[in-house]
Amino acid sequence: MAEPVNNGVQFVKDTPYRGKDVWYFIQSTDPKVAPIGSPAILPAHQESGDTSIEGDSLDEQTKMGRVVAASTNEDSIELTSYMVPGDTANDIIIDAKHNGRQVKVWRVIVDERLAVVEGDHKAYPAMFGYGVVDSADISDEDSFSEMDFTLNIIGKLADKNADGTPGTFPLSDAQVAALGELYDYERPGEKEGEFADSAVTSTTTSSSTTTTTSHA
């Protein structure tokens, strides 16, 4: 009789990454709106994002018992965010729904523990897919107006490159800091006037440089 084998156990003790550190970015597939080199768009004031990894399975009963086999992938992403003037994400979603366009979408985990260095910036784990807008619901109540939309992913969400390496999303330290902040610290007399609610910030990351510009 063979001796019993103890193969041990594997487990991790660490702090889970927070939902507030997961950001969703989108981009239009209309070449007039987003030609090669265009930045991804961060929908403003994201409330929640839900990624569903789903799909049907073949499930049949036979005389020999139940037979179950994998069948289809039906991944989807649902995102809810408040509507802010100047946020082109709303226009991208509505245009895609009305005109039958696809939308590129990234789910990015912005956790420093998971970051890898790429040249002069860091990159974070990401899932990517092409989605078709299933629905886009705009809610106008006594509180802020918000949009809730669902993207049905074509095929399945990808988290690896063609060569098998993990998929990543580039972000500079300044971009990461800007994700959760409305404005930077300033000393008396450095600026004048009130904080501009309509300020639009664009950032560009390349292999050699990172620039940030703000437009009121």
CATH classification class of the domain at 19-56 and 66-168:
Mainly Beta
Radius of gyration: 22 Å
Strand content: 35-45%
Order of helices and strands: EEEEEHEEEEEHEE
Classify the helix fraction into a percent range.
under 10%
Q: Any low-confidence stretches, pLDDT <50, length ≥5? A: 206-216
Beta strand count: 12
**CATH architectural label of the domain at 19-56 and 66-168:** Roll
Distance between the termini: 78 Å
CATH topology of the domain at 19-56 and 66-168: Pnp Oxidase, Chain A
Protein name: Phage major tail protein, TP901-1 family
Region (Disordered): 191-216
Biased composition (Low complexity): 201-216
Organism: Lacticaseibacillus chiayiensis
Task: Describe this protein's structure.
Helix content is 9%, strand content 40%. It is mainly beta and 216 residues long. The strands form three sheets. Strands 1, 2, 5, 6, 7, 8, 9 and 10 form an eight-stranded antiparallel sheet that branches. The chain has a two-stranded antiparallel ribbon with strand order 3-4. It has a two-stranded antiparallel ribbon with strand order 11-12. Strand 3 and strand 4 form a beta hairpin. It comes from Lacticaseibacillus chiayiensis. This is Phage major tail protein, TP901-1 family.
